[in-house]
Amino acid sequence: MSAYRFAAAAIWSIAIAVAGSKVAEVGMDIVSRRAISKRPGHFRCTEHSFLARSGNDIAYRVAGSIRPKHVYVLCHGLGTSSNYLLLLADHLSRAEDTLVVIYDRAGYRRSRVGTSFPYSIVESVNDLEDLLSNIEELHQSVVLVGHSFGGYIAHRFVEAHPEKVDSLWLIEPTHPQEATLSDQRREGVLAVTESIRMNTLLARAGLGILNDNRPTAKGLSGNPYSHSVESEIPTGRTWRAMKREWDTISALLLDGTIGVRNGEVPTRVITSDDTESSLAVQQELFRQFLEDSQPLDILVGLNHHSVLLSRRGVLAVASRIRGEHDGP
Fold it and tell me: CATH number, domain at 48?
């Protein structure tokens, strides 16, 4: 075989491999966007979307009572979507007087980025405000629940609009001064930046299947929605949305001058013992979200992912949230 034919054959093989990866990625995108309510025995919900003032097209799912006493609005973290919260939404929606709303920030799952501006925290706060305005049932008691970066967005929302929320639950919330705790944390921010950059490039080249999803997968014990969570991790959509947000978040973390303050809304913080014990001062950051007399709620034997992805973690979280609002 001539050098020319050999090179042509090599290029053709690479093209086929990339095309195959593209097909695999599209297939996983379709799975991640599929209405979970169509699967027998799974979280039964209705799918909706609206155009936010930002220009973003925001998708959300609603399940539960048509005459709710409590409405739970769940905010997902960085690099995940509402699929990550399906198990918690499932458990919370089982109460007769409860409505649960889970939504996707711009770029994740079915939500689309429509703004031409770079990402900002204000964009997410405004999109969340527009979500609440688009749901008629939200004139009832609203309980806002946020995980990780979604927790920080929920906190910022409550700071800006305390009149719209009755209580706030933060699960392993991101604190804007986390990177100031140690040199190791600052180096971690830089490592995440490089990881997101490389994985975004892989996804763009159609090689998203090579992205490592094992850290998240380890927390999926007993979760019937594990496929929905895992299938969207390697997709280009997820990595592009993550990079868009992380460019802003990393600058916020490395700056370290912005703090948090107690608001007018009752707030609880749930954390895993794995995160809480990673650094002694981590507790102090979490407590900044709370009133002085309010303790942290520490769940033993869990980590940042398993607290919401494992059945044991979700049962513990859901029982605390429901117990707080259902009364004796």
Answer: 3.40.50.1820
Quote the number of domains for the chain: 1
Q: Do the Cβ atoms of 130 and 53 come closer than 8 Å?
A: yes
pTM as predicted: 0.84
Query: Distance between CA 233 and CA 215 in Å, rounded?
Result: 11
Q: What single-letter amino acid sits at 91? A: H
Q: pLDDT, tens digit, for every residue of 152-175?
A: 999 999 999 999 999 999 999 999
Q: Which residues of 285-322 are buried (b: 16+ CB within 10 A; e: fewer)?
A: bbeebbeeeeeeebbeebbbbbbbbbeebbebbbebbb
The sign of the CA dihedral 89, 94, 98, 99 is positive
Give the amino acid at 204: R
**Most confident listed range (1-10, 164-173, 196-205):** 164-173
Contact 250, 189 (CB under 8 A): yes
Phi and psi angles of residue 294, each rounded to the nearest 5 degrees, phi first: -90, 125
C-beta of residue 183 within 8 angstroms of C-beta of residue 189: no
Reported as a single tens digit per residue, the pLDDT across 52-109 is 999 999 999 999 888 888 899 999 999 999 999 999 999 999 888 899 999 999 999 9
What is the rounded CA–CA span in Å between residue 217 and residue 205?
24
Higher-pLDDT residue of 253, 324: 253
H helices then E strands: how many in the chain?
A: 12, 8
Whole domain around residue 260: which residue ranges? 3-326
Instruction: DSSP letter for 111, please.
Output: -
CA separation for the pair 13, 178 (Å, rounded): 46
Residues contacting 60, CB < 8 A, separation 6+:
47, 48, 49, 50, 82, 101, 102, 103, 104, 131, 135
Q: What is the DSSP letter of 208?
A: G
Task: Give the C-alpha separation, 29 to 27, whole Å.
Answer: 5
In angstroms, the first-to-last Cα distance of the chain is: 81
